Amino acid sequence: MFFFVLILGSSLAYGQTSEESKLYDNANESFRNGQYKEAIIIYDKILEQIPDNQATLRMKGIAHSNLGNHEESLRQFFMVLQHQPNDVVALTAMGAGFGNLGEYHEAHYYFEKALEQKPKSKVIQNYKEFTERVIAKYPYIATEKPEKTYKTGLIHIPQWIKPVAKWWSEDKIEDSEFVKALHFLLEKEIIQIQLIPKSTQTSSTIPLWVKDNAGWWAEDKINDRDFVSGIQYMMENGIIKIKISKYNEDIHKEQQREWFDKYLRNISKNISDEKRYIEYANPSADVIKKFLRDYIKWNFEEEVKSASGKFPDPSYEVINDTYLIHYKVFINDQPTGLPLDHVSTLQDSFVFWEEQELTINDKKAKINFEVIQNKHEANIWITWVVRDLGEGVLGHAHLGKGVVEVTLGDYSCDGSFQLYDVSSVKQIMTHELGHSIGLPHIEDTTNIMHPSMSPEYAYCLLS
Q1: Which keywords fit this entry according to its UniProt record (predicted)?
Q2: What is the pLDDT of residues 131-163, one digit of tens each?
């Protein structure tokens, strides 16, 4: 059998006292045990003392997600991104959250941003592929984002800037030159407006409406406030980069959160009005439901409890002083509509052992597998399960012949059931298949028959 230990490692990012560290440990213990409501209560106590603590906001966000509170989860990760725009966990969690609300295009945007930060992540790639499949299958109208309005406060713009704005609107001045001039005027406080920090969603292109606004303002067709909205857009999108005071930054972050809340309210209303089809981004919980609908069919639990003696022995022959051992294998059916194709990797496990040269009674031995449909003739029965096989146990097999069971996931990543990725399932299957042909555990950590491994997860945000 496989055994493994996976410890949830996360710590307070800054400013913690011994009391807050103890609270954090207590919260994470509740989290690991799937007691998410209790964990959230403790995370809130920490945030009362350290309101912007990123580690706590992340854990609270995942706890809300696991409870199905997707809007509240998104709020936590939005706050993380306000401080750390490239945080991979937050970007991925935003994608998962929007996917759980049926906003698949917005979800896809965040998964792409996350992949920019961590291009080789299987978890993020799985989520991205999920959104692409759903978008292709179920066209829908995305919820329109509310218009962003800013509390502009005091505005002072000298009149002599109007001719310059007019020339820019008529393409007599390059964009880069006008942006450089605005940056100088803002930095020297010749133009005085409320400054806006850069957001997580940036653009290097100046929209036509911003340039049109500049021309209309120069001709007195719009007021100062409308012209300022274009300048603030360029700040928010990183076109104009300027140092922002802590006071102005805090005001803007609060405005951003108000805007995001309005966006979430609009999504919620659309879900209710449209009766929108929603396919959840993380299918792990749905996989459990599929297996529980016909528990006996998918599990060999009773056969595992009995000895393997009732299984027929594999046949063999000796050719050129080499044992050729022939195993007949029955492969159990799997529920339809599973999100990951783990069954197809079984052939790779077969090939791995068929290519090995083993030794039996001082003679060389080669293995051959044949898949058959009659259970009573099979030397090996193979199935994949989601039930608990025991703490830290990823699979088990009778030695030499009998039943092979491999679990598809566990509760160790975040306290909820999480699917392993396909490569981990294949590795576990190859190991257990080794037992079924008579191989014991080996101490060499590089050998497939080493008794421990740490599986990787397909969708867990903490993996």
Answers
A1: Hydrolase, Metalloprotease, Protease
A2: 999 999 888 889 999 887 655 556 788 889 999
Domain boundaries, the chain: 18-140, 161-244, 286-436
Q: What CA–CA distance (Å, rounded) separates 4 from 445?
A: 13
58 in Cβ contact with 79 (< 8 Å): no
Per residue in 175-201, pLDDT tens?
999 999 888 888 887 887 776 766 666
Type of residue numbered 141:
I
Q: Are 43 and 10 in contact (CB under 8 A)?
A: no
Distance CA 339, CA 341 (A): 7
**pLDDT tens digits, 246-263:** 556 677 788 889 999 999
Beta pairing class for 380-385 and 322-331:
parallel
Domain 18-140 shares a fold with domain 286-436: no
For domain 286-436, give the CATH number: 3.40.390
**CB neighbours (10 Å) of residue 187?**
13
- Cα end-to-end span (Å), the chain: 23
What pTM was estimated for this model as a whole? 0.70
